[in-house]
């Protein structure tokens, strides 16, 4: 919501997941559609344009926001609090904005996400080197922006595409997102290194601001979407109380998934900078790891079958834990790059199965499709609970010690949460795979 290992773009995961999850693509539990060469509509092209502009803007600057704050105050604790506040704000925004998207104007929610993202970079420019003093405010604004945009985008994406063109939409979204994730951070690193660093940062933040504003302009060409039904505020609580529903197990898995994201989402890119002191090397890191991840997502997305989800996810989970182990010998650019390449290769085996199974549940029957907004909110709330827990654990550890060994142990413990995710999902995969076969 960012660079390489910092955050694998949701559209990469969703694109590959959609290949093995026809339930979410179908209409209220209908049979899987035959392949179609149906072209994208004008509205879906406009949504892709907004998506691409936001991807470029975030990729240009998102990678370097934490580095910018670190350079102003070299304190992991500040960055931990910034991340925690970001995730809390995002979770609250998803839950509160669900009513806006379900019952009112989801297009305005999408625009609000883009506008608030622009405000975030405008404030970073305005505060300058004092931005680190306002990390709490910046965390709230960035989390709010992400909540508005991704909630509305996921729902509008469902509505402006259909079973005949959704794969094509996801293909273009993946191409735009991956191109931005590989090239934009490298350009940013080049500009920062070859200009006075303060000027370089101001330039990339300014470009991001302009691109976000352009995205707002384009969004006004998207038609207002019809609102249907009433928002169920406590659907998440109701699901967790029902012993017979798969959502209890899935929610636990999503929480475990979020634990890793809450820390690794900012820590790896920051470690690359801390151990190199060079933004250009961070750009190179992003270029290489994003390219490896793109190739792996494309390959796994094409080859993975529903009945292989459980085994594939276990292999992916184990491997992305093992690539943390070399940090105990030495943390430098080489071991970080090996980590990034390893995660890029194996992360799709871990992420695609859980994404596929969750979307199977959302689109598995007519009742779930009617409540798609609530289930998307439930998914994001569970992920953010995990991210919040991971961030809190990080804050506790770094407030007690700055020992490199303690940091490595923390990364290994948090980085092992994918095994827990697999444990909760192992039976859900079997059930959803059986549903897809039938």
Automatic annotation (TrEMBL):
InterPro entries linked: MFS, MFS_trans_sf, Sugar_transport-like
Subcellular location: Cell membrane
CDD domains: MFS (cd06174)
UniProtKB keywords: Membrane, Transmembrane, Transmembrane helix
CC terms in the record's Gene Ontology section: plasma membrane
Keyword Transmembrane: yes
Molecular functions (GO terms): transmembrane transporter activity
Keyword Transit peptide recorded: no
Entry's transmembrane regions: 46-70, 76-97, 109-128, 134-157, 169-193, 199-222, 250-273, 285-304, 311-329, 335-361, 381-399, 405-425
Membrane-topology annotation of the record: Multi-pass membrane protein
UniProt protein name: MFS transporter
